[in-house]
Amino acid sequence: MLVRWFLLLLGTLSTQADLFQFDSITNVSSYYFNYIYCNIWEGECQPSQDDASQQVPSRELWAGFPQDYISVLHQWYCSLGQCCESGDCRITNNITGLARDLQTKLHGQHLAQSVVLKAIQGFIIDPESNKPLTLSFHGWSGTGKNFVARIIADNLYRDGVKSECVRLFIAPFHFPHARLGDTYKGQLREAIRDMVLRCPQTLFIFDEAEKLHPGLIDAIKPYMDHYDNVDGVSYRRAIFLFLSNIGGATINDVALDFWHSGQNREDIGMEDLEHRLRTETMESQGGFAQSELMSGHLIDFYVPFLPLEYRHVKLCARDAYIARGLETDEATLDEVAKAMLYVPKEERLFSAQGCKSVPQRINFFLP
C-alpha cells in the first residue's frame, strides 16, 4: 500500500513538470526507488558512496518543487526512519561518546585525551569558527595516532571511517612518486573540494604526513586558512588531521626525563612539550614540516603521543582479547607484553613497538 501511494505521488508530481526540470524528478525517484528496493523489498544491493542515486537529495535538487509536495514527501521519508535532528544523518557529532572512548579505549595518553577532546568539542559547538580545525598528531609508531583518528571518525560520523564525509590519505600509498607532484596537487585539491561540496562537515586524515612531497600541502593550504571561501566554496567546517612520527624523539626524551627524576608520567603537561614539539617539527625535513602550515601558524593543536609503558601494553592486549570475545588472564597478558621491545630494556619502561604490535601476537587486528 505504501509503495502504491508513493507511485501515485510521483505521478502527481510529474504532472507539474512545467514547474521544474524533469531531471529533478528522475533523480529523486531514482533515490527513493533504490531505497525501497534495498530496504523494503530487501533487494540485493550495496549502495556505493560514489553513486549519486544513493545520495540524499540536496536542497538545490528540491528548488523547483511546490512546497506542499515537498512537505508530503518529507513526512513519508521521515516515516521510514531516515530523518535526524542534525539535518544530515551521516553526521552524529557524539561528543559524549568521544569523551568516553578516549577515556576507556586509549591507554597511557592523558595529553592526547585532553587536547583532542577540547579541540573537537570546541570546534563542533562553535558553528562560527573562522577556519577549519587542523590537528597535528606526533609520536612513535604504535602509540595510538591512527587509533584516535578512528575514534574521532566513529563518534562524529554514523559510518565512521567508511563515511562519505571522511577521507584518508596515506602519503606513500596515495602520493608515491615525487615526479608526479603537480598531478597530485590537482588531484588533492579536487578531492577535498568535492568532499566539502558533498558533506557539510568533513574529516580529512593524512597518515605518515612526514613523507608528503614538498609543495603538496601548500597546494591545499588556502583550504585550512582564515578565508570565508576559496573559489566560492567554504572550508570552515572541515577537520584536518596530520599523523606523523615527527617529534617522537623529543616526546620520548621528556617522558624519560620525568621517569629519571621520579615524577609521575601523568604529571607531564603540554607546557613541557608544546614548544619543543613545535620547534622540532619546523626544523625537520619533508614536505609537511616545510609547508606553509608551519610558517603560517595554521596548526591549531600539536598533539603528543607518549611512549607506552609495560602496563599500557597489557591493557592493549586485554582490549584486543575482549574485542574478539576471548577470555584471558594476567599470565597471558604478561606473556604478550613481554614479547615487546622496551627502552631501557632492563626496566621495561617504554615500548619500542606500542599497541600496534600487540595484535600480531594474538591474531587480531587493532586499528
From TrEMBL:
InterPro entries hit by this protein: TOR1A_C, Torsin
GO CC aspect terms: endoplasmic reticulum lumen; nuclear envelope
Keywords, in A-Z order: Signal
Signal peptide: 1-17
GO MF: ATP binding; ATP hydrolysis activity
One Pfam family this sequence matches: TOR1A_C
Residues covered by the Torsin-1A C-terminal domain: 308-365
TM region(s), chain numbering: none
UniProt-recorded name of the protein: Torsin-3A
Taxonomic path: Eukaryota, Metazoa, Chordata, Craniata, Vertebrata
